[in-house]
Amino acid sequence: MCGIVGYIGKQQAAPVILEGLAKLEYRGYDSAGMAVFDGEKIQITKAVGRLKVLEELTHAGATMPGTVGIGHTRWATHGAPSDVNSHPHYNEQGTIAVVHNGIIENYLPLKAKLESKGYHFVSDTDTEVVAHLIDYYYKGNPLEAILKVMHRVQGSYALGIMFTEHPDEIFAVRKDSPLIVGQNEDGCFIASDVPAILKYTRKVYFIENQEIVRLRADGMQFYTIDEEEITKEPVTIEWDADAAEKGGYEHFMLKEMYEQPKTVTDTLMPRIKDGDIVIDELNMSDEEIKAIRKIFIVACGSAYHTGVTAKYVIEGLARIPVEVDVLLITHSHADHMDFGTLDVLFEKVHRPLTVLAAEKAFWAMRQRYGGKAEFVLMTPGTEVTLADMHFTAVSAAHSDPSSIGFVLEADGVFIWHTGDTLFHRSLLAQRPAVVDLLILPINGKGNNMNAVDAARLTRILQPAYVLPMHWDLFSTFGCAVQPFADLLAQDPVRVLIPAHYTEFVL
């Protein structure tokens, strides 16, 4: 997930873009950049790190004069966080600049084709392919070139595009990634989300899939992928600025819940092509997939309830037995043990469940749900074997004194979920000889590890993979994942940073 902002009008573009990107930094914060037309050329400045690095580098935009520009705040998917991988990306002549939110799934064959045509790439990103592909098809008509690109790229994208030869225009297009545009008396705006431009206008246009918009200082035009001009009606945003960041919902958690259907759709649709299901990232043949006879879903907290729902969907569609029989509860806090959700779970599941729970959570759940499950009290050192899975409770230092973590061993693979915890030496005393996957918190507040402590523990344990959790979970916890990843950049461990439409297969 990334954030894009663009402006064309009477004001200086760079300060407007920086202000908009600040409202979208929740969408990505490992790097940021801007492209501004200065009257002669497109000037591009970008930097790894939080947005403030770019602000300082450009003196709050003062070093990038011009009234037309686009900007980007990045959450890395293709290519590690770096200056060169930061957006905007551009063609070799620097006459076309692109910012992108999404994933171009077929970028590798497109890149190979462009390299065979003599194009040179400087980054590891999928977005640079878009910049060169536009250049390849551009013959003086921006709209025509963009349409040809849209017909050839696969995946999700929201794009902001500038051309040196068309300095009075910005083009924007979307497919499966959010994009809005707006207008006031001073100019026009593009953005990934409403908060970025709410200061300037409350009338916005929501761009639909495979629509294109041409923006000028005095207005905008909308087109379909068939180059047919269309008319769109603006929507007036009534929310205040705080509510806008939550999409109009009272709480971020409520927003996440109501966005789940769209998230599922956005995850599944790119993998349905011409009526077939294509999941290339599994690296499995059709024969191997057809040979699957059972699926296990292992999850903790609220993810368990998602797993239960998935069980019925998968069993109904694939006719493959799915087991979601074990509920792990590390401690009693509401984000890990929500009775409202658990009530629905125990009402819907009509077969024996096993609940492995920390002490305080154990007593609370057993009192509420009685004989609806087999409850096992887990304290540090407790071991339980269920089928071919072996669970060991390990100590955790958290504000709930009964908090624990779990070490799961199955088929020789060791997964250590530390639970919410501070760094403490008793963790090390209970470590397995090998850790294949380490799951640990890094939010730095609420008695959890900060990035430095989490990196220190990771170096000591030397897992093959580490999956950070609990970062940026609540509005009061502002810990970013990228500093943690940066601390481990020279280590052999692979840091798995979850993002939208991301799947890890071990």
Explain what this protein looks like in three dimensions:
The structure is a single chain. With 506 residues, the chain is α+β, with helices and mostly antiparallel strands. It has two domains: 242 residues, 4-Layer Sandwich (Glutamine Phosphoribosylpyrophosphate, subunit 1, domain 1), CATH 3.60.20; 122 residues, Ribonuclease Z/Hydroxyacylglutathione hydrolase-like (Metallo-beta-lactamase, Chain A), CATH 3.60.15. The chain contains 14 helices and 29 strands. Helix 3 packs across helix 4 and helix 4 packs across helix 5.
How is this structure best summarized?
The protein is 27% helix and 28% strand.
Sequence-ordered SSE layout with sheet pairings:
Blueprint: E1 3-9, H1 13-23, E2 31-37, E3 42-48, H2 51-57, E4 68-74, E5 89-90, E6 96-104, H3 107-116, H4 127-137, H5 142-150, E7 155-163, E8 170-175, E9 180-184, E10 187-191, E11 203-206, E12 211-216, E13 219-224, E14 229-230, E15 235-236, H6 241-245, H7 252-268, E16 272-273, E17 276-277, H8 286-290, E18 295-296, H9 302-318, E19 322-323, E20 326-329, H10 339-348, E21 354-358, H11 359-369, E22 374-378, E23 383-386, E24 389-395, E25 404-410, E26 413-417, H12 425-429, E27 437-441, H13 451-461, E28 465-469, H14 482-487, E29 494-495
Parallel strand pairs: 18-19, 20-21, 21-22, 26-27, 27-28, 28-29
Antiparallel strand pairs: 1-4, 1-10, 2-3, 2-4, 5-6, 6-7, 7-8, 8-12, 9-10, 9-11, 11-15, 12-13, 13-14, 16-17, 23-24, 24-25, 25-26
Helix pairs in contact: 3-4, 4-5
